[in-house]
Design a protein that fits this description.
alpha+beta; Ribosomal Protein S5, domain 2; 5-stranded mixed sheet; Heat Shock Protein 90; about 600 residues; Ribosomal Protein S8, Chain: A, domain 1
Length: about 600
């Protein structure tokens, strides 16, 4: 038998290595920004075109490279950061593997210009797919400019896996924010398609957080500061009243490196125990300083995961420090056995008589065991009561190929509805029983209504008595402007959108005033992570997001009229079988199936 094992060519090996290091354009942004920081730059500029697919360029005023280093830095495992294996456990820099530039050069066109301070001329190198095309001396400022063009040009299959420009830009902004938040002493700027996205001047930590996430962030922050033998902890957490339903604005930095840790995240969440409503998440910006020999950051190619020697100790310190800070700044209740002077009788009332004794009024007819059905849901459309339940379905157009047709062909709903566990609506049909999931069914109803309002009808809006002002980050405001016309088509009306503020003056008839912020935040989050580059898909994502936010939830008590309303509107939908996310809205169980349960 002939030999079958062979060594891969260098360019193929580099492309395989690139798959670990460079997953998307944001990966390149992270590596280049970290290299600029390691070069002691005090000013860093990021230029991006077409979400990084056409161009990613980082320009810094760092120490630059010599002619030899400029050429050698594109070799695999070429690094100035470590010399021995022991150095891996005492890292003081961002990059250290020596894989980043080699991996990037293997899958893109790279243009490098660099010069050290004492040099008269700098070095200009062009690389295409790991091959050096040209190298020459040029006049260039001190520091380094590296431009990465046509990413994945020689791996079209990998390029096809990239998401829309909106999603890829979101990932780039995330990486930029993570680097900028941990280095407030550096001036950062970012431009996308020649438009300024960020201009961050040198500042302190609090000002940098506010500059990145918006002016209103300042009032939300509670400072954290604790120093022990095993951990230095600084930063900020948000006040409980500013918690959000979506996950975001949650940052852990260890020794100036962004990391992800579900274990330490749980420590933060447990510190807020009893202070947050169900489903809400606190924001935090926590900066940990630990001895370098107690962590291992070389366990994942992206270096966002870290192994700690003493996780349980760190957990306890983080949890107790945050709880103490929340109590210290009167955010959380604390035990205080000292007299509270604010409870004293005011001086002017100290000797005054009480003119009227307080009385207690008792409603003797009140029965605590009497249950009442609370109507928590507002249905914009009222269906007239009919003498016969079957007449609700007399004129309903039934789709030709779905379970609804099968149901209406063979069965007729003959009985009134009942609600089970505040979750399911149950109705009898001639062949058995019908179970409708109230949340999923309402999602389908609202989804089709929002789509119809956006594409066919003119949406109905209800004017707010007092317009509501809501604050968002700059990139969220930019996204709201992009989808403003689509929001208007669903019933939202805006008085103005300016700076970091929007003023809402009208909402869809199904939206309550208290839900506006939650709905818009959820919508923006869904669009950032899911939207493709087509207008119809954008409307579809909006309709799905709003339907998910507005649909009646499990646990809501429904009156008989409300149950029947949902049933009637569901089977009037074009696709009543499934929710907008593909889950069944109802199931039917025939009598013979029920009989089998009883062994009949």
């Amino acid at each position: 038998m002939s030999d079958i094992i062979q060594l891969l060519p260098d360019h193929v090996a580099n492309q395989i290595a690139a798959g670990e290091v460079v997953q998307r354009p944001a990966s390149v942004v992270k590596e280049l920004l970290e290299n600029a920081i390691d070069a002691n730059a005090t000013t860093i500029k990021l230029l991006v075109k077409d979400a990084g697919k056409a161009l990613i360029q980082v320009i810094d005023n760092g120490k630059g490279m010599s002619e030899t280093d400029a050429r050698f830095c594109f070799e695999r495992h070429a690094t100035s950061k470590i010399k021995t294996a022991e150095d891996l456990f005492n890292l003081q820099t961002k990059g250290f593997r020596g894989e980043a530039l080699a991996s990037i050069a293997a899958i893109a066109h790279v243009d490098l210009k660099t010069k050290q301070e004492h040099q008269e001329l700098g070095t200009h190198i062009k690389i295409e797919g790991s091959s050096i095309v040209s190298q020459e001396l040029i006049s260039t400022p001190k520091g380094t400019s590296i431009a990465v063009k046509n990413l994945f040009y020689n791996i079209p299959a990998r390029r096809n896996f990239l998401k829309s420009n909106t999603v890829e830009t979101r990932h780039i902004i995330d990486e930029f924010q993570r680097v900028a938040l941990v280095h407030p002493s550096i001036d950062f700027s970012m431009y996308h398609n020649e438009k300024e996205v960020y201009r961050l001047e040198k500042s302190n930590l609090r000002k940098r957080i506010v500059a990145v996430l918006g002016k209103k962030t300042n009032e939300k922050l509670v400072p954290i500061d604790e120093t022990t033998d095993v951990l230095g902890l600084t930063g900020f957490v948000s006040k409980p009243e500013f918690a959000k339903k979506k996950r975001g604005e949650q940052f852990f930095f260890v020794n100036n490196r962004f990391i992800k840790s579900g274990y330490l995240h749980h420590a933060v969440v447990s510190a807020f125990e009893g202070l947050l409503a169900t489903g809400y998440h606190p924001s935090y910006f926590l900066y940990l300083t630990v001895p370098t020999n107690t962590i291992d950051i070389n366990i994942h190619p992206t270096k966002t995961e870290i192994k700690f020697d003493n996780e349980k100790t760190l957990y306890a310190i983080i949890r107790s420090t945050i709880k103490h800070s929340l109590g210290q700044y009167n955010v959380a209740p604390i035990l205080d056995f000292n007299r509270d002077s604010t409870m004293d009788t005011p001086y002017g009332f100290e000797n005054k008589k009480i003119y009227k004794e307080p009385t207690v009024t008792v409603d003797r007819s009140f029965n605590p065991f009497k249950t009442e059905v609370q109507k928590n849901i507002q249905f914009p459309y009222k269906r007239e009561k009919t003498a016969d339940w079957e007449s609700l379905y007399t004129d309903i157009p039934v789709p030709e190929t779905n379970a609804a047709k099968q149901l209406f062909t063979n069965d007729t709903i003959v009985a009134k509805t009942h609600q089970v566990h505040r979750k399911y609506i149950v109705s009898t049909i001639k062949s058995g029983v019908l179970f409708i999931h109230q949340n999923l069914a309402h999602q389908r109803i609202l989804y089709e209504e929002y789509l119809e309002n956006s594409t066919v009808k003119e949406a109905i809006s209800q004017q707010l008595l007092f317009p509501i002002e809501i604050n968002f980050s700059k990139d969220d405001i930019k996204l709201i402007k992009e989808i403003q016309s689509d929001l208007v088509s669903t019933g939202f009306l805006f008085d103005k959108i300016k700076g970091e503020t929007i003023v809402v003056k009208g909402v869809p008839t199904t939206v309550n005033e208290s839900q506006i912020t939650v709905i818009l935040e959820q919508l923006l989050d869904d669009i950032k992570n899911e939207i493709p580059d087509t207008s119809f898909s954008q409307l579809d994502v909006m309709a799905k997001s709003m339907a998910k936010s507005m649909a009646i939830k499990t646990g809501i008590q429904l009156s008989t009229e409300e149950q029947e309303d949902i049933l009637g509107r569901l089977f009037a939908c074009k696709e009543p079988n499934h929710s907008p996310f593909g889950k069944p809205t109802f199931i039917s169980m025939e009598i013979n199936e029920i009989d089998k349960k009883f062994g009949l």
